[in-house]
Amino acid sequence: MNAIEPLLSVRDLRVSFALDEGLVRAVDGTSFDVMPGQVLGVVGESGCGKSVTMRAILQLIDRPGRITNGEIRFRRDDGVVDLARLEPRSAAMRDIRGAEIALIPQEPMAAFSPVHTVGDQIVEAILLHSHRWQPGKRMGRSEARDITVGLFRDVGISMPEQRIDAYSWQLSGGLRQRAMIAMALSCKPRLLIADEPTTAIDVTTQAQVLALLRDLQERYNTAIIFITHDLGVIAQMASYVVVMYLGRVMEEGPVDDIFHAPKHPYTKALLRSIPSLYGQTRVALPVISGALPHPFNRPPGCPFHPRCPDAMPRCSDAVPKLMPVPPNQFASCFLHHEEVDPA
Fold it and tell me: Do 291 and 302 form a contact (C-beta atoms < 8 A)?
């Protein structure tokens, strides 16, 4: 057992949306840990529950969605709190959200108000959680502005003294993303959730943002959950990987083991679909057969079995548990163990 306690421990998390058409189980029994200072990569196709899981951690599930089961245990200075038990709009949750756990959304243009300067929005966040910078002391606006200028400088925004007074629509995509990272860091969070932060920017800017996040993680020792469908990005960023499919964890393990010795057929299929510089030319890229099931038509048994090349009869009848697979991984697959969950 690891002597270091997890910063975040998610256990059997389930999130459902009750719609007129039926019940959507967006997250269906997900469990994972995040250690202090760790970069955890969460991968899977679009619609697999990655973002909903992270929004559940922050208690930002849109109605009619709600957490129906599970624990989200977050370690604070004064002990461990179960975020799943906190009311989304409670003072306790607001004290954690944005301060101790921060979010970098996929599209920063939608995150910033277009009628207030980027700097003012970050200054307000710092003033709201000023105890993260000066415990027991009130902070003035000029001090918060100085901190914001310093954060702009830390994230590589040139001319920070001028750009602090810019509106989001006056900044390029790369600068908006850097400003969003500055906003996320403005309250010295213990955990940073990066939800597809490089999807909406070009590849050159993407490389710069990834390098920036790696540097900031080392400098601030902030744990990061990095959500993406891009396994190439995960290879650069993460030390540990969780592979999700239809709201469940299919496999998890150290990044090198996942890439060089994947255990679950879904992980193998994801890796085969990555373009390679050394692949044959004019040959179709391998793809995962079939398509992600409709939310109202979830398959029984293992959720991946209708698309799995190694599916067995029992895969349609029972759900395999996430079990250890030597030397370092965990997989939810009957190819590696006999344990089952009720469907």
Answer: no
Cβ–Cβ under 8 Å, residues 166 and 112 = no
Instruction: State pLDDT tens for residues 147-204.
Output: 999 999 988 899 999 999 999 999 988 888 889 888 888 888 999 999 888 776 677 7
Interatomic CA distance for residues 105 and 290, integer angstroms: 29
Quote the tokens at residue 275. 């373009």
Task: Indicate the SS3 state at residue 321.
Answer: coil
Assigned CATH for 1-100+189-276+324-343: 3.40.50.300
pTM over 0.85: yes
Give the count of beta carbons closer than 10 Å to the beta carbon of residue 289.
10
d(C-alpha 45, C-alpha 312), whole Å:
23
3-state SS, residue 128: helix
Classify residue 284 by its DSSP letter.
Answer: P
pLDDT tens-place string over residues 208-235 = 888 888 888 888 889 999 998 888 889 8
- Kindly report the number of other CB atoms within 10 A of residue 18's CB atom: 13
Whether residue 245 contacts residue 291, with contact meaning beta carbons closer than 8 Å, is answered with: no
Q: Would you say residue 1 has pLDDT above 50?
A: no
Q: Give the start-to-end residue ranges of the domains of the chain.
A: 1-100+189-276+324-343, 112-188
pLDDT in tens, 264-301: 999 999 998 876 555 566 666 677 888 888 878 889 99
Q: Which of 110, 100, 85 is nearest to 13 (CA)?
A: 85
